[in-house]
Automatic annotation (TrEMBL):
This is Bifunctional uridylyltransferase/uridylyl-removing enzyme. Its EC number is 2.7.7.59, 3.1.4.-. Keywords: Hydrolase, Magnesium, Multifunctional enzyme, Nucleotidyltransferase, Repeat, Transferase. Signal peptide: none annotated. SMART domains: HDc (SM00471). Belongs to the GlnD family. It comes from Ancylobacter tetraedralis. Uridylyltransferase (UTase) activity is inhibited by glutamine, while glutamine activates uridylyl-removing (UR) activity. Its cofactor is Mg(2+). SUPFAM superfamilies: ACT-like, Nucleotidyltransferase, Nucleotidyltransferase substrate binding subunit/domain, Poly A polymerase C-terminal region-like. GO terms for biological process: regulation of nitrogen utilization. It catalyses: [protein-PII]-uridylyl-L-tyrosine + H2O = [protein-PII]-L-tyrosine + UMP + H(+); [protein-PII]-L-tyrosine + UTP = [protein-PII]-uridylyl-L-tyrosine + diphosphate. GO terms for molecular function: [protein-PII] uridylyltransferase activity; phosphoric diester hydrolase activity. It comes from the Bacteria.
Length: 932
């Protein structure tokens, strides 16, 4: 079960967070003194002094609540205390308002009021930054007395700096608006009496149940589930994103709230434990609900206390301190923060399981409609229930697979794999009852089941299904069957990767990778380029699916996960039924799964030595095809916008450049043919240009340009260059936004210059623009064409493009000597991100190129890093022949092909050491001033 780490717990009685009686006496004395002076504006002065004193008490209460939260660790209890604190504040303000400001000794029938907590506040649970939602409930229309009291309370709360949502309504208005508005209906569902006329509140609740709730369960459920879907579209459909939204994300508190709203509405319960008696949850599942709720409230309360505001996103820079506060410690291979986040994702999974259980119970009650297609299919059959012909242990119930009886798994534990195989084969959804039973039966998956040939055959067919293996694998994972059947996979379930590169947990990334591979095989995504073609040529598709499924399975171990993963594959593949040669291939693919991506993005693909070195790794064409497809699936499954046309083009180029080397000179598409084809496609895309102009322009680019740049970009750049030269500009820039990648691309066309890259990087740093990618190329007539990808700083494209214009102006001024970049950059002080530490590395290698020394620099990315590196190389009298700039989340990997001023490689250990020390100093610098 998921529990917070064990820690010293100090149980505090549930008492007030400050001395309520003493404060009441103090405020009463204050009111008598201020009002007794009979000055003009005394009421306003009293409200102000009350607000200041109550704000002190409120802050004191928060400080005590935080101390108790740190000591005992209960998030729910903290949320209850903060709600109680708010109750006491409102009670004090109300007492003073009706006693000293708007006293009514003989109130009329209309001068009655109930003050009601609604919404989240009505639940009696509040985070430190939660809004306070109040309903001033009246018997009839508003009166001058009621309006004055409500205003006095609200003004004091506002002056305290609290966020208060409020409404003033009669009982009739509440009922009328609740019928028409589902949001108001939901807030009233959690109404809680604070003070005032109890009879008014009781009337509201009785009429709400009778006139609004009764007979509208299906309508409410449909609205809440639709609302949830819309919310998840905004926050992300996966519960395994590495910076989750604790409140609104999938598997977060709002999902639990939605469950309980539905339960209260349909089953008319007030507490979670009552759902056990209704048959919705078992006693254990009700405990899981409370445990999830307590954990999520702990995280949310700490999150608000840490950030000092109503922050709901558990961002990287808060996760480490959160882990420390909650008592997590590091284990071999896993940081404390990674253990904390693994726990978080396991809780999110439990919340998803509870959602499925409530949905199933609602369908049984017919409160949640079965999808229309299912109803149509059911009518076409004599009975919506039928037995599957492959096994009498399973039935189909309204297009969902279910067990024939509760002993199905006990009779034959292989059925725990077979149920998923049959669901995938027949395209069936899963009945929640079957998934619940599968989760309870996990202990049946023992070594005998894992070694069972039939179980492994079924699993391989699930993994390599030509339909949608991702869906089935995810359900296997959510029930725990996948991790139990493949324990090595079980070790990475809910494991987060504490970096900004991966958007998902390790298990989710692996399952998504299989999903991407399936899409590649079906040809559904043209943007996957060459992989779509190669997948039709490979001989052994099954081993490719196994390699993709296992490529990151050794994450979280102290050793290199690629090497450890290859060892895991050598153990698992024979069990899955793979031959010795296929096992060797899978192990090799896992060990090399980062190689092709690294070389494509950080090496000069026009350098013969790069291609020869890669060819010596892959050795044969079949392995290179498999590695290319795996690399594509891996990158595309990292997160939104990570895969792009540029990476696709680089991988394609590396593949085709290497192909003739490993085939002994024969190539399915040799270099000259590919260059000619790329040029022909370019010509066809510019029909408005005459032949002479096209010939001249094509001749200005080296062959590598045509191979490493995709056609759309070639066309865009050609039009840009033509316009610049027509206007007589020696230096020209253009910018465009790329919504898919979340970047702005700045392209610079200028006379080539040894310090041009440093100038561009410095201009970006001076504008606090962060470089994440760069494509550097030169033309045969001595011009440079550089495209820099910058992280967005503004939401609106217009603002982004104006920023790009400022950067372009700085580049021109710097090249003309109008500004001195080192001085400008030195004033832009930017500290490195506190959330991450990356060990800096500088490698110099003369064997990676025949003509150049290759300098690879890796370290924590920050603003101005590229500028600092290029400036340093220039000061060291090194000529940069080509540069390859890439970022992988928080890690920058910049590779420079350099020579000395005479065009020779850099030789000598002392010279290498000096270069290494200078570049390490840049990586270790705290700001761009030091880097410059």
């Amino acid at each position: 079960m998921n529990e917070l780490p064990r820690r010293r717990r100090t149980e505090h009685p549930f008492k007030e967070l400050f001395d309520l009686d003493a404060l009441r006496v103090e405020l009463s004395a204050l009111a008598e003194r201020v009002l007794g002076e009979s000055r003009s504006g005394a009421e306003i002065e009293l409200r102000g002094q009350m607000a200041r004193r109550l704000k002190q008490a409120y802050q004191q209460g928060h400080a005590v609540a935080l101390r108790w939260l740190m000591e005992e660790g209960s998030g729910r209890r903290c949320a209850e205390r903060l709600s109680r604190l708010q109750d006491e504040i409102i009670q004090l303000v109300h007492e003073l308002a009706v006693q000293y400001l708007y006293r009514s000794d003989n109130p009329s029938t209309a001068e009655r009021m109930a003050i009601v907590a609604v919404g989240g506040y009505g639940r009696g649970l509040m985070a430190p930054g939660s809004d306070t939602d109040i309903l001033f409930l009246l018997p009839y229309k508003q009166t001058a007395w009621g309006e004055s009291v409500a205003e006095a309370i609200l003004y004091v709360l506002w002056d305290m700096g609290l966020k208060v949502g409020h409404a003033t309504r009669s009982v009739d208005e509440c009922i009328r608006q609740a019928r028409a508005d589902m949001t108001i209906r939901t807030t009233l569902l959690e109404a809680r009496m604070l003070l005032g006329e109890r009879a008014l509140f009781d009337e509201l609740i009785e009429r709400f149940d009778r006139e609004v709730v009764q007979g509208t369960g299906a309508e409410f459920v449909a609205a809440k589930l639709a609302e949830r879907e819309e919310r998840l579209k905004r926050t992300g459909q996966s519960r395994y994103v590495v910076e989750p939204n604790v409140k609104d994300g999938k598997g977060g508190l709002r999902d639990l709230h939605t469950l309980f709203w539905i339960a209260k509405y349909v089953y008319r319960v007030r507490e979670t434990r009552e759902l056990v008696a209704k048959g919705v949850f078992t006693a254990d599942e009700a405990k899981i609900f409370r445990r999830c709720e307590d954990f999520l409230w702990s995280v949310r309360c700490h999150l608000h206390f840490l950030s000092g505001k109503a922050e709901e996103r558990l961002s990287f820079d808060l996760q480490r301190e959160m882990a420390e506060r909650l008592g997590y410690v590091a284990h071999p291979g896993l940081k404390d923060v990674e253990r904390f986040m693994k726990h978080y994702f396991l809780v999110a999974k439990d919340v998803g399981d509870l959602t499925a259980l409530v949905s199933a119970a609602l369908e049984e009650r017919h409160e949640k409609p079965v999808p229309r297609l299912n109803r149509m299919i059911a009518r076409l059959r004599r009975s919506p229930r039928r037995t599957l012909k492959e096994s009498a242990d399973f039935i189909v119930d309204n297009d969902r697979i279910n067990v024939a009886d509760s002993s199905a798994f006990g009779r034959d534990p292989v059925n725990l794999i077979r149920i998923f195989h049959l669901a995938g084969k027949h395209g069936l959804a899963f009945h929640p009852d079957a998934m619940r039973l599968a989760t309870r039966s996990l202990k049946l998956i023992d070594p005998r089941v894992r070694e069972n040939p039939e179980a492994n055959r079924l699993f391989l067919e699930i993994l390599g299904s030509r339909a949608s293996p991702e869906i089935v694998l995810r359900r296997m994972n959510e029930t725990g069957v996948l991790g139990r059947f493949v324990p090595e996979f079980g070790r990475v379930v809910a494991m987060m990767q504490f970096n900004m590169y991966h958007s998902y947990t390790v298990d989710e990334h692996l399952i998504r990778s299989v999903g991407v591979l399936s899409k590649i095989e079906r040809g559904e995504r043209p943007e996957f380029g060459l992989a779509n073609e190669l997948v039709q040529q490979i001989k052994h598709r099954t081993l490719l699916y196994v390699a993709v499924f296992l490529h990151d399975v050794a994450k979280g171990r102290p050793e290199d996960h690629s090497i450890a993963g290859a060892r895991v594959a050598r153990k698992l593949c024979p069990r899955f039924g793979l031959s010795a040669s296929d096992t060797d291939t899978v192990a090799w693919l896992i060990e090399q799964h980062l190689t092709m991506s690294t070389i494509a993005q950080s090496r000069d693909l026009s350098d013969r030595k790069t291609i020869e070195n890669f060819a010596s790794v892959v050795q044969n064409l079949e392995r290179m095809k498999l590695l290319h497809i795996l690399t594509t699936a891996d990158i595309a499954a990292v997160g939104p916008g990570v895969w792009n046309n540029w990476k696709s083009q680089l991988l394609r180029t590396l593949y085709y450049e290497t192909e003739p080397v490993i085939t002994g000179g024969f190539s399915e598409s040799n270099r000259s043919q590919r260059v000619a084809r790329a040029q022909a496609e370019f010509r066809a895309a510019l029909p408005e240009w005459d032949g002479v102009a096209l010939d001249a322009y094509v001749g200005r680019h080296y062959p590598s340009y045509w191979l490493q740049t995709d056609r759309d970009q070639q066309v865009t750049q050609a039009r840009f260059i033509l316009a610049a030269e027509a206007d007589g500009h020696a230096l020209a820039t253009t910018a465009q936004t790329d919504p898919q990648r979340g970047v702005t691309e700045l392209t610079v066309f200028a006379p080539d210059h040894p310090k041009l890259l440093a100038v561009i990087a410095g201009a970006c740093a001076s504008a606090n623009a962060h470089i994440v990618d760069a494509q550097i190329s030169t033309t045969t007539d001595g011009r440079a064409l550089d495209t820099i990808a910058l992280t967005r700083a503004f939401e609106r494209d217009e603002d982004e493009l104006r920023r790009a214009e400022r950067i372009a102006a700085n580049i021109e001024k710097s090249l003309s000597g109008e500004i001195r970049l080192p001085e400008v950059v030195a004033r832009k002080f930017t500290k490195r991100p506190r959330a991450f530490t990356v060990e800096p590395e500088v490698t110099l290698n003369n064997s990676w190129s025949n003509k150049h020394t290759v300098v690879e620099v890796s370290g924590l990315d920050r603003h101005g890093l590229l500028y600092g590196l290029t400036q340093t190389l220039s000061r060291l009298n090194l000529n940069i022949a080509s540069a390859h700039v890439a970022t992988f989340g928080e890690r920058a990997v910049d590779v420079f092909y350099v020579t000395d001023l005479m065009g020779a490689k850099i030789m000598g250990a002392a010279r290498h050491s000096a270069i290494r020390r200078a570049l390490l100093a840049v990586l270790d610098a705290d700001d761009e001033a030091n880097a410059a």
